[in-house]
Design a protein that fits this description.
By secondary structure, the chain is of the alpha+beta class. Helix content is 14%, strand content 33%. A hairpin with a 5-residue loop joins strand 23 and strand 24.
């Protein structure tokens, strides 16, 4: 059995695999330990194995957990009182599982009820790799691991401008919110399927006054454009504030190749009174322009990321030398350890792994402290 330890806290993002750690990212907020027990042999396609996951020393009362295997599917046979997060439909045979519950309920469910089914048929076999994400559960929030951002769906309907102001008045992890800016197909898909947000305002408008008011709040110079008459759509918040991404009524021309997802023949500025955008209007992921005075639910975005936890983020390759990193790039660069020439060396030749790589990894882990434990077990 091979064991390696990494400091984890607040958010735990770790890709673990047979014989070592493919990727681990640490955050210093609330300490916690995660232990994953993996089969140390390849599993035949279609075969299911139990994968115990142990959580300890977390101080959060409620947790959100997201489990992503490198291949195959996961089943949580007895979830008990756990609740699936928005956009996830089942605990059975899923490529990704995401749920929340009390610490006690999460610990009880993951100790013996999680199983992995290897992909393919009996003629093939696969090693299990799995990414484990743990964070404090905050009602109404959804974390997107692709963007690193957090989204909060506000069901209470407001006119678009009121929603803009309300979003700007919200904070999460010390960050100020803004009406969501949807800048890629992947983000649009995530919001459409995982945010729990139908027919919602987001941060797109072709109202010059609203855009410039938002820019003024950040001490940015005003801009001039033709507004609803030509369908000049801009972002009114977030890092993209004041950026035009499309122009045109009914047939939109993207600006500089930026992302658009308008429904057919939208935006159309119907009755010359529509200047604000909703997404998931009748169809998931499609945008429509509406009268800004209408009241709708809205989606607030926070530009979170592991850096908000004020710690270094490390990414390790699998110690066998195979690249299995499926996480987004680390927000901080990996810092080469400083090796004290007076420190005794460790003979690792008999392990079957590259001794120099393991020694360097060990120094980083000792410096980081205890935390994530990855164990390979014999079948």
């Amino acid at each position: 059995m091979n064991r390696f330890k990494l400091l984890v806290a607040g958010v735990v993002l770790a890709l673990v695999s047979l014989g070592g750690v493919s990727s681990a990212q640490a955050a210093a907020a609330q300490p916690g330990n995660v232990a994953v027990d993996l089969p140390n042999e390849a599993v035949a396609g279609g075969t299911s194995v139990v994968v115990p996951i142990t959580l300890s020393e977390f101080t959060f009362t409620d947790l959100t957990v997201r489990l992503v295997p490198g291949s195959g599917t996961l089943t949580l046979a007895n979830p008990g009182a756990l609740t699936l997060n928005s956009g996830y439909s089942s605990f059975d045979a899923q490529s990704t599982l995401s749920f929340h519950g009390t610490l006690a309920d999460v610990v009880a469910a993951l100790q013996s009820n999680l199983s992995w089914t290897a992909p393919g048929d009996a003629e093939s076999s696969s090693l299990l790799t799995i990414r484990v994400e743990v964070t404090k559960f905050v009602s109404g929030t959804t974390y997107d691991p692709l963007t690193g951002h957090t989204y909060m769906y506000i069901e209470s309907p407001l006119p678009w401008h009121d929603a803009l102001l309300a979003a700007r008045g919200m904070t999460y992890q010390g960050l100020t919110g803004y009406l969501a800016t949807i800048t890629s197909q992947a983000e649009n898909d995530f919001i459409g399927t995982k945010s729990g947000a139908p027919s919602i305002w987001f941060g797109a408008t072709d109202d010059q006054g609203y855009v410039n008011e938002a820019r003024a709040a950040l001490a940015l110079d005003p801009i001039t454009f033709d507004s609803q008459l030509t369908g000049d759509y801009y972002w009114a918040g977030g890092p993209e504030i004041g950026v035009q991404f499309g122009v045109g009524l009914e047939t939109v021309t993207p600006i500089n190749g930026l992302y658009n997802s308008w429904a057919q023949q939208e935006p159309n500025n119907w009755n010359q009174e529509e200047g604000c955008a909703v997404t998931n209007w009748n169809s998931v992921g499609l945008w429509n322009d509406l009268n800004c005075a209408g009241a709708h639910s809205y989606l607030v975005e926070f530009s979170t990321g592991l850096e908000i936890f004020e710690t270094s983020v490390y990414t390790f390759d699998n110690i066998t030398g195979d690249s299995k990193d499926v996480n987004p790039p680390a927000v901080d660069p990996v810092v080469d350890p400083v090796v004290d020439p007076e420190e005794p060396t460790v003979d690792l030749a008999d392990t079957g792994f590259d001794a120099g790589l393991i020694a360097a990894l060990a120094i980083l882990l000792i410096a980081a402290g205890a935390g994530l434990r990855v164990a390979a077990r014999k079948k």
